[in-house]
Design goal:
Rossmann fold; 2 domains; alpha/beta; four-stranded parallel sheet; 42% helix
Length: 251
């Protein structure tokens, strides 16, 4: 279950690439389905319940805001296996998984401090949840390890995916003196603004180089495929158990 469209070429896109990796690796042993653009709230309740009722045996929810809906639906379907990305609540049939995104953001901060002439980054953020706040802090720790005077200007857009808002935020941040853009939102819009202005930035979740070949310095790329394959294989083998997995660069 994705909070954004699989065509965002960011976070939801990378999760869907993981789903396709499962199909490629396991072939006719599995059948997959997905729901995209699912809002966090009552719509999520209905999405998870629909998939459970339609016969899905292992269901992944990929957004922090899906946590309580998954907990609720998992109780109603104790024989269905559930996994939730970036959350912290578990049960007998609900596991959690996450990536140590902050590790990559520390490195982005170091690169930003080396590349920025102004010593100021523009940072576009979605919601004040732990994952996002952790990313801001890690980015700044990395940047200030190179330039102790490095600063970031932050804009909260209160959405995961809205290209218009993300582009407007990028323009405003550049107008305020930032010369490099960072984002914790899912579209390519901010990076494309950097491309248009001859400035620099970073991709989010996926390699966005084809949308901003001159602007993108690098990107944190989420490779969910190996994890999804291992968990689906465990379900097929009858060895699946709800876990608490937090993988990072060393993994």
């Amino acid at each position: 279950v994705y909070t954004g469209p699989i065509g965002d070429f960011g976070y939801s896109y990378q999760h869907d690439q993981g789903r396709l990796d499962v199909e490629k690796a396991l072939g006719d042993k599995v059948e997959t389905a997905y729901l995209e653009n699912v809002s966090e709230g009552p719509d999520a309740d209905r999405a998870f319940e629909r998939l459970a009722r339609e016969g899905c045996k292992l269901i992944f929810g990929t957004s922090f805001g899906f946590m309580d809906p998954e907990v609720k639906v998992a109780k109603k379907f104790p024989k269905v296996m559930f996994e939730h990305a970036t959350g912290y609540k578990t049960s007998d049939n609900l596991g959690i998984y996450n990536a140590r995104f902050y590790e990559g953001r520390y490195i982005l901060g170091q690169i930003a401090a080396k590349e920025s002439k102004a010593g100021v980054a523009g940072y576009i953020v979605s919601f004040p949840i732990p994952e996002v706040v952790m990313g801001i802090n890690s980015f700044m720790l990395g940047a200030q390890s190179i330039n102790p005077n490095f600063k970031a200007k932050i804009v909260w857009v209160n959405t995961w995916f809205d290209p218009g808002k993300e582009a407007d935020a990028a323009k405003a941040l550049f107008d305020q003196g930032a010369d490099i853009i960072v984002q914790h939102t899912d579209s390519t819009a901010a990076l494309q603004v950097a491309e248009e202005r001859g400035l620099k930035g970073f991709g989010q979740s996926s390699d966005m180089i084809k949308f901003a070949p001159k602007a993108q310095l690098t990107s944190i790329t989420d490779d969910w495929g190996p994890y999804y394959i291992s968990r689906v294989q465990a379900a097929l083998d009858g060895t699946w158990k709800p876990g608490n997995v937090w993988l990072g660069i060393k993994d």
